[in-house]
Amino acid sequence: MVMLPHQANVAGNVHGGEIMKLMDNAAYVVAHRHARANVVTARVDELTFHHPIMVGNLVICHAYLTFVGNSSMEVAVVVEVEDLYKESSRICALTAYFTMVALNAGGHPMRVPPLHLDNEEEHIEFEEGQKRYEANKNREKKCFVPRYYRI
């Protein structure tokens, strides 16, 4: 997708939220295809901005499953950027892990198929994803409210 002026600030830098939306959509497609059901974003981890994206740049999203639990799936998303006006190769611009949860027709989490791993690299990514899953599962779920904010 080519980035347009309405997606950027006055200096021509594309807003991070624009790219995050593309990443979320890519994660949705991958998780939906695997689960064959509606999925929602439950968590985003390790979202890292590696390189700026400018108006006129071509953005390419790559997304793939790294881990599957009972109802949740971890999707790794990599965003590459290419300057269409210069002879340059693609550069990694953003990376993140999206945790997607499959929902049944009643809106409740549902079991998803297991992930079939074809090679050693996929097994390693699965094990790393499982570690992230366990670490996140053990974290207390709480809504962060700064002290200065009054409800």
Quickly list its features.
151 residues; Thiol Ester Dehydrase, Chain A; single chain
Characterise the protein shown here.
There is one protein chain. The chain has 2 helices and 4 strands; from the N terminus they run αββββα. A 4-stranded antiparallel beta sheet has the order 1-4-3-2. The chain has 151 residues and is of the alpha+beta class. It has one domain: Thiol Ester Dehydrase, Chain A (Roll).
Distance between the termini: 40 Å
Range of strand content:
25-35%
Structural class: alpha+beta
Number of domains: 1
Q: Which CATH class is shown?
A: Alpha Beta
| CATH topology value | Thiol Ester Dehydrase, Chain A
**Which regions are unreliable across 5 or more consecutive residues at pLDDT < 50?**
none
Strand order of the largest sheet: 1-4-3-2
Question: Portion of residues in helices?
Answer: 25-40%
Order of helices and strands: HEEEEH
Q: Count every helix, treating DSSP H or I runs of 4 or more residues as helices.
A: 2
Provide mean pLDDT, rounded: 93
Instruction: Please summarize the sheet with the most strands.
Output: 4 strands, antiparallel
Radius of gyration: 17 Å
**Name of the CATH architecture:** Roll
What is the 3D shape? globular
